UniProtKB/TrEMBL annotation:
Transmembrane segments: none annotated. This is PAS domain S-box protein. Keywords: Hydrolase. Residues 560-650 form the STAS domain. Gene3D superfamilies: Histidine kinase-like ATPase, C-terminal domain, PAS domain, PPM-type phosphatase domain, STAS domain.
Amino acid sequence: MPAEMDWDNTVGNADDVRRVFDSVPTVLVGFEGPDHRYVAVNEAYRNMFPRVTAVGKPLLEVAPELEGQQIHEMLDRVYRTGEPQSASEWRLHLDIDGSGTIQERFFDFLATPRRRPDGSIEGVQFIIDDVTARVRERIAAEARAQEMTDRYRHVRDSATVMQQALLAPSVPVLPGADIAAEYLVAAEDTAAGGDWFDAIALGDQLVLIVGDVVGHGVEAAAVMSQLRTALRMQLLDRRDIAQALDAVDRFREQVPGSKSSTLCVGALTLSTGAFRYCTAGHPPPLVVSTDATPRYLEPTSAGPLGSGTGFPVRSETLDVGDAVLLYSDGLIERPGRPLAASTAEFADLAANILGGGGLPLDEASRPIDRLCSQTLELLLRTTGYSDDVTLLAAQRRTPPAPLRMTVDANLEAARAVRARLRDWLSGIGADSEDTSDVVHAISEFVENAAQHAYPIETAGGIVVQAALDGHGNLRAWVTDHGQWKEQGDSARSGGRGLAVAEALVSEIRVTRGSDGTTAALTHRLTRPARIVTDPRVSPVADKHGIDYEFRTMVDDDGRIVVVGDVDSLTASKLGQQISLHSRGGTKPVVVDLSSVTHLGSAGVSTLADAHHQARRNTADCVLIAPPGSPAHHVLSLVRLPIAAGESVLD
């Protein structure tokens, strides 16, 4: 037996050691056993997490919200293998102070094994560093710059730029399925990879594709582009999966470097849930059912392009609420993980997230967006990744009901329509930019009908309808039963409003007849695919709780700050504020439109008048509207000068 250690002379007096441990400014925790029971915490830990006493309790009893966020799994690996684990800038959602309120924080971790005298592992030591301020400062700087961090910007070569330009920029918004896509560019190999994805809407059918070309660099990106285009053309020509892949395989003979490319192609019939797929040398799809049970579909025995095995197809059925995930091998072939373990980890994590686990503060996002973004974030932050990673997912859903509403023909009509329309568009999955564009166009239609179709306020005089078709096209109509009459200034602003609306959406048609006028629009709805260089960068969710109520204020710098919807009801108030502050256009004025949620034609006319009046008086009227904001979009179309300053309400 080994001699017993003289602890007092070797380590120090027990009371002294305890005081030293407790006073270390870094957060230190000692866990014991497979359930990671707290056995020691220092003062820095108690200050960071002022909960009910943790000592003696398992981690998940003290912080149950951490389940599924990969912390317990990290401790499991250290306890099981004896290998230290570290983590950098992990995003966690947890109850910091025991109040029951979940907060988002970022942490660095170091977990090491603690051994008994005989060498067996009795527990895990955990060092924690809260780096939330550092991460938020960096994220804010990146957002302001609207570009990648220097680390990635310097390593991106022309092949990477080319590859990302050739990838699908978006996925369709469809009535029978929610769709999301994520593409993670490998950090260790800055040459572009050959992954690609596609989601093609064909009426009642949605085709999902993930492919992988052998190699990296310009050559791989060029091959990827040719194969993607060839397959897309076959599918748009209504070839079935086997026929399309046969044609692409023949085309491959003309494309050097395309041999051994792998693909997974799946076709989902939205009305029935029938799912036909082929795994051409590619990992099989993962299905997560409505009860959060994961299962991998059977491979179809098809080989890669050029293998000569043919392209047999298998069939499955997805219920409403089921999700299917297609992915590249970079997701499961991760550093330091056996393939079988990595595959099981992916399935379990995806099921947990779709079942409501993961990072709870992201619940405002669509389930399919959470599934993609959190799966990559939580899975890859434990191991890293050595290849590009693609994840494409679709969740079958019950088609949303079309919108139909009848409003009185008066000055309040457009405001009522905007509120209902925004809710409906959010429900069908439209993103914020499409929502802003469609709401603007429909609002102009309604205001024009209210102003021109009837001589007096008319009950139920305007009907608004909207529906989403299987190709991802939104179709909307605004109908009145009056006789139009152009009226001075309102006619002028209405003409400008219609021109702006035509620039915002795909197509507009106005039909006038003896029984009234119908203004109709068609607009293709898509959601952007996320192409990122760091899985720790969480997606920016569509904003909730936006303030649409109009108001103005003057900030400490003397700028007029405008919030909410600027329409025919509120434009005159804005004009009065600008005139008062600029003394009738004779003094410089700055108008911050960063928080404007809708800028109608009446508001545009007000701003144009203020700008022209200032120019006549050799004064300045500066309009601030950051790129991407509703005001910037509209003002760019009418060519009013814009200063892209920062919002004072950030």
